[in-house]
Amino acid sequence: MRRKDFFRTVAAVGVATLRSPSSAHSQHRADLVLRGAHVLDGTGHRGRKVDVAVTGDRITSVGSTLPSGASEIDLQGLALSPGFIDIHSHADLSLLVNNKAESRIRQGVTLEITGQDGNSIGPWSDAGFEDTRDSYRNRYGIEIDFRDPVGFLDRVDRERPAVNVGTMVGNGALRGLIVGYSDRPATETEMSTMQSLLSGQIAGGCVGLSSGLEYTPSGLANLEELVELASVLQGTGYPYASHMRNEDDRLLAAVEEALHVGRLANVPVQISHLKAQGQRNYWKADAALKLLEQAKADGVDVHFDRYPYTAYATGLSNLFPSEYRTGGNQEFLKRLRDPESANRLEKACREKVALLGDWNSVQISSTGTSTAWARGGLVGDLARARGVEAYELVIDLLETNGGSVGMIGHGMSEENTAKILAHPLGMLCSDGGSYAPYGPLSGGSPHPRGYGSFPRFLGHYVRETGALTLESAIHKVTQMPAQKLRLQDRGIIKAGAFADLVAFDPATINDQATFNDPHQYPIGIPLVIVNGVVTLRDGEHTGDLAGRAVRGAP
After folding, report:
1. Into how many domains does the chain fold?
2. What is the pLDDT of residues 20-60, one digit of tens each?
3. Distance between CA 534 and CA 551 in Å, rounded?
4. Of 371, 387, 409, which residue constitutes the final position of a domain?
C-alpha cells in the first residue's frame, strides 16, 4: 500500500513548539521517532498505540508522549512489529551476490538463520573451498575468501548486506570434510575431530547444529553419531535443528529419532519444516504434533518451524532413495543406468511420485542453461509436450545437468498446513533463498516462499482464514525464534533492543509470488528498519545497508 506523504522528516525548527529547544534537550533527541502505529511488541500480548524512538542501532524508548526526534515518521493506520526472524533460511551465499537482499527485506525479514539442513557454508576441504571459490568467481564475479561458517560471519560484517545473518553448523558439512561420502560409521578419531570443529564454530558465534537426513552425506550419520555431535551443544542452549530422515511414510519414526537425539544429548530440538507428505500420510500430522506435545510435557525443549505453502522444494534426485545417492552425483547417475540398480531406482521413483499424486505434482525449479526450457514446467506436461515418457525425461534432465536439478513437490494438505502454522510449538520459516526479479538472482523458477512466506502468513493465514491471531503470528516470527536462539536483544520492541522494525498494513499485506510466476515482491510492507537504518521506505529499497553478523553468546 502506498500512502501519500507516508514519510515526513521533521526539521528542528519545525518542532520547536513540541519541546524545549535547549541544547541539553537537543543532545538527547532521538535520531528517529515512529509515531502513531499499532505496536505489536513481539511478546504475543495485545498491541497498543504508542510511539517508538530510535537512536543509533537501538530502540531508546517506547511510550505515548515521546519528545520529537531529529526525524519522524507517521505510521497512522499501520502496525509496527519487530523485524521478522527467519529461523530456517537458505539465503547464505546469495547475500554476497546481491547484498540488497531484495526478496528478503521486502517481506520484512531482518534476520536470516542460515546453515540449515546439514549444509552450512563449510567447513570445507581445500578442494571444497576451491570448487566453491571458482564457481562463484566464474558465475557471479564474487570472491569467496573464507572456509567455514565463522569465516562467513566475518565476511557478512565486511559486506554489510541489507539483513542480519546468523548461522548454524551442518553435520553434513562436518561429515563430508572428515568422513567423506562413504556409507559407514565415523571412527572414534573422526568423531572427535568433528566434535572439535563444531565446538570451535560454536565458540566463534554459530547458534546450533543442523542436519539434513534425507540428503548425503548428512543422512549417512547414524543415531549414535548425531547424539555425540549434538552433545557438543550441552550448556549452550543452542538447538539441534533437523530436516528429519523422512517426512512421509516414516514420518513418526523420524520425529522420534529427532526427539531421541535431544533427549540423549540433553539439548534443545528444532524440527525443520514439519509436514506430512502424501495424502495417505495426512493423518500423521496430528500424531506428529501429539508426539511433540508429549515430549515438551516430558521436559524436552522442542519446537518446530514450517513455511506457509502446501508444496516443498528440494533436488530432483530426492525422488530416489538416499542410499542410492551415496558417493556423490556421479555415482548416483551411474546407478540410474546400471542394470543391477536401474529397475529398483525406477520403481522407487514412481512410488514417490504416486505418493505425491502424479507427474504433474513435480515441478522443475532450476536447471542448467541447456535445459532452461524445463524451468517452471510440470514434469507430466513437459513429457507430453516433448513426446517422451515422464520417467525418462527425469533421467535425461538429471544426466544433462550432472544430477543438479531443482524441483518443487506439491504434496501437502491445506488443512494440515494451517493447523501446523497455528500450533503453539510452531514458528514460521521460509526455507527459501534470496532472489530478485533482476540480475543474477532472477534465473530459474524458485519456490515462491523465497518472496512471500511472511506476508502470506500474515495475509492468508491470519487475515483471510483466521487460523491464528495477529498477535500470536507476530510472536512466532519475532520473540519466539529469538528466544529459541538465545538472542535477548532481537525480536522484541523495548528500550535497549536492536532497532529491527517492520511497519505493515494488516488489511493489505500479502504475497504476490506464485508457482508459475515467482519473481514478484509482496505488498503491504512500506517500511523496514535494520539496526536503526531505514532500508525499505514507502515500499522501495533505499540502498542503505546496515545488516551485520549476529553471533551467539559465548
Report:
1. 2
2. 333 333 458 999 999 999 999 999 999 999 999 999 999 99
3. 22
4. 409
